[in-house]
Amino acid sequence: MTIVHPFGAKPISKAKVASYTANFAKRGSNANKENIPSSSQPAAHIPSPQPPSTSSPSPELIQQKKLAKNQRRTLVRAQKKVSDLKETIVGLKAEHTVALRETQLTIANLQADTVTLRSRIEGLETHIEDAFKSTTQYQANIAALKKRIARFGSVIQTTVKRTKRKAQSTRSKVTAHRGVYNTEARDLARRLRLAGCAPSKIGPLIVRIAASFGVQVTKQMSRRTVQRCMLEALAASDIQLVEEMGQNEGHTLSQDSTSNRSINYQAHQLTMRVPDYDGGETVPDPKSIPRTRLLRVASTVDHTAPTSVAMWIDLLQASLETYNNSPMARRASKSFSLRKFAMKMKGMCSDHASAEKAAFDLLKGKMDMLELLVFLSDRKSALIESLGGMEKWDELGDVVQSEHEAQLLKDLKDELGRKEYDSMPPEARSALNLFIWAGCCMHKDQNSFKGGAEAMGLSWALAGLTLPLILANKASAAKIRDILNPGRKDAPLTPEEEEAIAASTRGGVKAAALIHLFAAFGLKESHRFPDTSNTRFTTYGLAACELLKHLDFYRSFLDDARLRKQRVGWTNIELNLYNALHDAPTLTELAVMALYTQSVTHPYLRVVRGSGEDTVNALDLGPFHLKVRSHCEAIIANPDLLIAPDASFEKGSLDGKDFEGLL
Asked: Would you say 356 and 350 are in contact if contact means Cβ atoms under 8 Å apart?
């Protein structure tokens, strides 16, 4: 066995280890030469031990004991040294093993690094070879680009020629083709007309637009053609409207009327679910938000209910006739009748005028009659089918057909009435009876505001308080000033003076109307004021808020208007306004109008009109209207909710939200 020592030590053989052990033992035996005889001399005879005696041991025995003791010590020390040498050998073996493993690991790492470096060297050599190869390709590409640049001028000329040829080929697409304008040209004419262009100006405008894009149009669209394009859009809208009605299970009607220069106008709308055409839908989604479609805005001879209903029927029949005669309906074998329209009619929305409510009742009666016609038509169809179909029915002749129809009517007498109605399932009866009228919520608030203003005007005399200042018109102003003259005392009124007082008005509403007239005619565009002279909701409430918020400004503004004139003085409107803005009862009415607007009108309209992201159904507003009534009753019982020094919008406003910016 060979023991390897670290740090460059020479190996020690097993024989040398045995020699070292013998030398150590020999040194131990020579440790006490004076007591141990040399190996060259024969050992002295040691007599056999004698039995102990009572006398003291002999010197020889003592000497032998010492010698034996020394030998034992020497042997123990030798054994210990041998054991230490063995442990040293084991430690050296372990160190040698660790060093060997570390050396092997280092060799393995060096071998792996060598492989990696060789791989990188091979990759670099390949990359260098590719770079040398691609140099030739780059040079070829550069040469090709130079040739392409050299041909660039001829390419531009060819492209220009091709573009000119293409423009010439598309010129006929912009203008008329065989005397008929294409779809794009007619659509452009409609869009320009809807943008406000006069029909006679649209043709020249299309020519100018085409010329700006380098296209020459040789023929101008005439005024009559533009008007016919608009009529095409009317027919297309009728077809779309009736198609959407056929796709729905129900729809509601709405209408409103106004007048302009003594001519009555009535708007007709239908509300139903419609497909999302931008999203690619062809049928409406049952969960979609209903949309309102405009049927017509037509002039009427008067504002009565029969005229309104007759206009509805005429417009619907015109739309249905357009749809039934259209190529689309004929290709699909579709048709839509007034009876089907009545069966799908579920409600009507209008303002609170008596004529509108009467129109609702008339439409409901028409719907009942049309439902009866539908019922008879279904039974007659069943009769014809039972006789063998339409061909057999036509072969019977008029006399036989009349007999069958008479028998059908006789059989139907027992089925109509309460018995037939009671036999229907609850869902069918509910659908048959469903025809709801809903009043316009904006008109509800308008009527409430108007009724409140009238009651407020009457409350001054009932409470025995000083009435607001009379704001007389120009014709009655002199007489009113004469009546209010303190020097007149208790002189009786003449009939002319009584008539002047009756024709004169007072209060906050009159002041709000006058301030708009002054702003509209006296200031024109230099100052904007809520438009109380036109049909617009909440304008009088907004005017009251504006006047009270900037009261000092309007007072000084009126005074400045008087002084700025070349001939200093008041007009009748300016004088009435100036006096009204200094009259405590009139200002009190304006304050009440402003408080009602901020606490009821604005919160109410925010709810009924919705946020724009969701839909509001009139049928769901019943509990909310009860809340409105309770809120008004709470303010009547405790006006401090609005007029106390510590009043706030949390309790004073209907929805608990902050007042709008005018306060």
From this structure: yes
Could you tell me which of 89, 35, 21, 92 has the C-alpha nearest to residue 65? 35
Say yes or no: 262 and 359 in one domain: yes
Tokens of 46: 């040691």
In a domain, 450, yes or no: yes
d(CA 3, CA 493): 149
Within 151-219, residue ranges assigned H as helices are 152-174, 183-194, 199-212
Q: Is residue 494 part of a domain?
A: no
The token duo for 162 is: 């091709």
Buried-exposed string 393-421: b where 16+ CB fall within 10 A, e elsewhere: beeeeeeebeebeeeeeeeeeeeeeeeee
Q: Is 457 in the same domain as 403?
A: no
User: Cα(435)–Cα(430) distance, rounded to whole angstroms?
Assistant: 10
Distance CA 595, CA 544 (A): 9
Where is 631: in which H helix or E strand? helix 622-637
Whole-angstrom Cα distance, residue 51 to residue 587? 153
Check whether residue 542 and residue 585 sit in a common domain.
yes
233 CA to centre of own chain: 30
DSSP 258: E
pTM of the full structure: 0.52
Q: Tell me: do 408 and 462 sit in the same domain.
A: no
pLDDT digits (tens, 9 = 90+) for 269-319: 888 888 988 888 888 888 888 888 888 888 887 767 777 778 888 888 899
